[in-house]
Amino acid sequence: MRITVIGTGYVGLVSCAIFADLGHQVIGLDIDREKINKLKKGQVTIYEPGLETLFQKHLNSGNLTFTTSYKQAIKDAKVVFICVGTPPKKDGSYDSKYVYAAAKSIAKNLKNYAVIVIKSTVPPSTTVKVKEIFKTHAKAKYDIASTPEFLREGSAVNDALHPSRIVLGVESKKAEQVLRLIHKKLKAEVLVTTPQSAQLIKYASNAMLATKISFINSMAIICDQVNADIKDVSLGLGLDPRIGQSFLEAGLGYGGSCFPKDTWALIAYAASLGYDFNFLKQVDQVNHDQIDYFISKIKKAYPSLKGITLTVLGLTFKPNTDDLRESRSIVLINKLLKLGVKINVYDPIIKSKPKDILTNVKFFDSAYLSLINSDGLVLATKWQEFKDINLKKAKRAMRNPVIFDARNFFNPTTIKKQGFTYYGIGRS
Questions:
Q1: Which of 31, 90, 235, 381 has the highest local Cβ count within 10 Å?
Q2: How far apart are CA 231 and CA 237, in angstroms?
Q3: Pair 272, 353 in one domain
Q4: Virtual CA dihedral for 9, 10, 14, 15, nearest 10 degrees?
């Protein structure tokens, strides 16, 4: 089946590779000519484990091509996925202008029946506007649908090939049949619902996971007060099958391109309906405050932060990705800089200072170099490389052997045996 993917960002590029791997003819479109030129040359523009292998395989086979031309991309397409960005506005709501612009261009170039699928995360009202755009501009027949993605950065390829569920938001049997067909090789439960319900499923999923993270961070603060261990509390809590083990790790809070943005958007969307989603506001506030709580631990070791040097290991919002969007590490660094702390940085993927995000920090090519004359190691991202760090070598490099573990990544007993002072979150 011929499939077109509009937008070659994170979701779009992964979708291109996965649908090509499922045996479809896929053409990816983006209005960014520089990006498309790189993709045509085989240069994957994001870091995601396993993606480059699939990308090269299907680029070479001819199952995967790229273009900047809507006319070329839409021609003979049976399914068109809209995977463009939906950045947040100041009030937290989504800016859907790129979705609407893509819809208009698709409608104008549509010559034959196709299922138009909104895969971008959007509020339910978006479907109504997209249908109005097609009614005005499309001459061919079409169906509008929604299939939200549930990919985790760092494991997106595996998640896409082995999904937990497939949600098809459709308004006709024909659209359902087409979408079932293109997902046929994937072994997962299929839920068929309306586009509006499908879009709310995505909202609700991310808001619930954000809630679990804020809850366990709140419990970690209590653990610090009563000499309990949040690791044990999380394990005991997660053994309840009604709750489960996932997303019960205390740390700096949630970041990335989905949880913060989707939480803000759901709060704003609820407000547009006249409902004050106060519960979710508190989830967001707990996440906001977690950075300050962690800094209070650094202040216990160094009551006067001005002039000390801290090494921050990890910039990306999670391991196995190059995504810096809403990274808690960057929020932490910027707050420490304002307090007069000198910052050294090392990240396995991010090798140079991100423009307009960080200033006045020193980047290093290795963790050990970044630790020379440092007053403390701040573990901010759980890269496996940091788990395997040689503690004796790290201690020799540092001015003061102190570890601030913002992700509870290390074993406190092991760290202390090596002569370090250890600060975790909710660790007894």
A1: 381
A2: 10
A3: yes
A4: -60
Sheet containing 361-363: give its strands across.
361-363, 342-346, 309-313, 377-379, 402-405, 421-423
Is residue 88 located within the same domain as residue 172? yes
Residue 156 phi, psi dihedral angles, 5° rounding: -65, -40
Burial class (CB in 10 A: 0-12, 13-18, 19+), 42: exposed
Say whether 16 is catalytic. Answer: no
Q: Is the pLDDT at 2 greater than 90, yes or no?
A: yes
CATH code: domain of residue 310: 3.40.50.720
Please report the pLDDT score of residue 359 as a whole number.
87
Please name the residues in contact with 9: beta carbons below 8 A apart, sequence gap of 6 or more.
46, 83, 84, 85
Given a contact cutoff of 8 angstroms between Cβ atoms, the answer to whether 391 and 420 are in contact is yes
Q: Is residue 399 part of a domain?
A: yes
Candidates 16, 83, 223, 258; catalytic one: 258
Q: Helix, strand, or coil here: 169?
A: strand
Domain assignment of residue 273, given as a range: 229-423
Percentage of the chain exceeding pLDDT 70: 100
pTM exceeding the 0.90 threshold for the entire prediction: yes
Backbone phi and psi for residue 54, each to the nearest 5 degrees, phi listed first: -65, -40
